[in-house]
Design a protein that fits this description.
Length: 148
């Protein structure tokens, strides 16, 4: 077996893992959605669980499929046509992944830091500094110079 044949099988394995992760993710999403519905959480909560879990499974599958495409292209005989096809496939899958992620999280990926705990910590630190500066300007002791 030569080098290219081995990595062709490796790429096929990655493609199978990507498809399998989406299938298993779908089954898990349905089970979790039915469980949420059975607990009396309501239809909208069950739908949210189903949608989030299925979206995460699709994202995982797409990432593995991109890895399979990269392995297949890198290990084959390089040509401009193969590189162009890989670029188009990666671009389409990246746009699809970003749109699914936006649907799941409800925010743009580059604005996520403002809605996560890290962004909240930054917001709190800014607010604390602003409040400390305001307090130092309105001190009761008559000294209006800021303290360091």
């Amino acid at each position: 077996m030569d080098f290219e044949t081995v990595f062709t099988y490796v790429a096929l394995g990655f493609e199978a893992i990507g498809a399998l992760s989406m299938i298993v993710g779908f089954i898990i999403a349905v089970v979790l959605g039915v469980r949420a519905l059975g607990r009396g959480a309501g239809g909208s909560a069950a739908f949210s669980v189903l949608r989030t879990t299925l979206g995460a499974a699709i994202l995982l599958g797409l990432e593995v499929l991109v890895a399979a495409d990269l392995i297949r292209t890198i290990t084959s005989k390089p040509s401009m046509e193969d590189a162009l096809i890989l670029g188009i496939i990666v671009l389409i899958r990246t746009i699809l992944s970003m749109s699914i992620q936006i649907e799941i999280e409800g925010t743009l990926p580059w604005r996520r830091a403002l809605t996560t705990s890290g962004g909240q910590l930054i917001s709190r630190a800014v607010a604390r500094d602003r409040d400390a500066a305001a307090a130092s300007r309105t001190r009761v002791d008559g000294d209006s110079s800021p303290q360091v």
